[in-house]
Amino acid sequence: MNWYPWLNVPYRQLIEQHQQGRAHHALLIQAQPGMGDASLVWGLSRWLMCQQRDGLKSCGRCHSCQLMEASTHPDWYKLAAEQGKSALGIDAVRSLAEKLYHRSQQGGEKVVWIPDAGQLTEAAANALLKTLEEPSANTWFVLCCHQPGRLLATLRSRCICWHLPPPEESFSLKWLQSQTQKNLQEMTTSLRLSGGAPAAALELLNDKPWSARQALCQGLQDGLSQDLLSLMKHLNHEDAAQRISWLSMLLLDALKWQQSGEMMLTNVDSLPLVKQLASRLPASVLDESLRQWLRCREQLLSVTSVNRELVLTDQLLRWEQLLIATSPLQAK
């Protein structure tokens, strides 16, 4: 698993808590996608499992380290939804609880990692709550979640919350320069579109997603002067929510530009498009457009078995009507 330089400090802080006897048995890590929280958990887990720890490091030689390296340690548990499913049900939690109350097979620590606690159904979260309230000896829980606010409040209250913040932009840009040949404007844009998470920014800069984002920008520019429904081919994909985020950030940048916020822009590689939006659409229309697209994104993310094409078509028609109603020609 990849290790990232911005994880060094939080890793040391977490290990020192264990060394000083101050670690809580249930840790809830809140991090944006692309911050490397999985790598942080893996490093912490290896240290906890190691039988011959060397300060802040696991030895890498003992039997437990070898089992962890092979991903076959019997006392390390990963609890996630089955492939192809988005929900983690109560049966998996109950099965885990039964295993935890037995003595560890290697005679050491037991670690449970839930990569996405947001997948827990309400019943599963309540079942896990009981296990967290009465944990077995030498058992550590690490839950990761992008939006902890969506978890049950009772579940959050049983955990110590740990926020993994994005590094400084200058630090992240320096790291990106060592990983990609993209120019500074593209790296800056990708980083800001990714909420400052460097690994997510690097993934966005890969040829396929970056080409999709550039095509969306060109499609928006063409759609403003021709037909907004032509944007459908750029939006109607499995990652529609992300593509709507790209569109929303362009609208937000246009609002910033109107308020002389040039230094705070996200899409620094697409200034002509930002200026076009800012000059063509009044602030009230940009604001309403942004609200519409964010509601559309939330619908796609939260409604089960939603008809994506129908939702996007409806939104594009609504947006077109909004822009027509406020165009200079219509006003005459």
From TrEMBL:
GO biological process: DNA-templated DNA replication
Domain DNA polymerase III subunit delta' AAA+ ATPase lid span(s) in chain numbering: 167-205
Cited function: DNA polymerase III is a complex, multichain enzyme responsible for most of the replicative synthesis in bacteria. This DNA polymerase also exhibits 3' to 5' exonuclease activity.
Organism: Izhakiella capsodis
SUPFAM superfamilies from the UniProt entry: P-loop containing nucleoside triphosphate hydrolases, post-AAA+ oligomerization domain-like
Keywords associated with the record: DNA replication, DNA-directed DNA polymerase, Nucleotidyltransferase, Transferase
Name of the molecule in the record: DNA polymerase III subunit delta'
Recorded catalytic activity of this chain's protein: DNA(n) + a 2'-deoxyribonucleoside 5'-triphosphate = DNA(n+1) + diphosphate
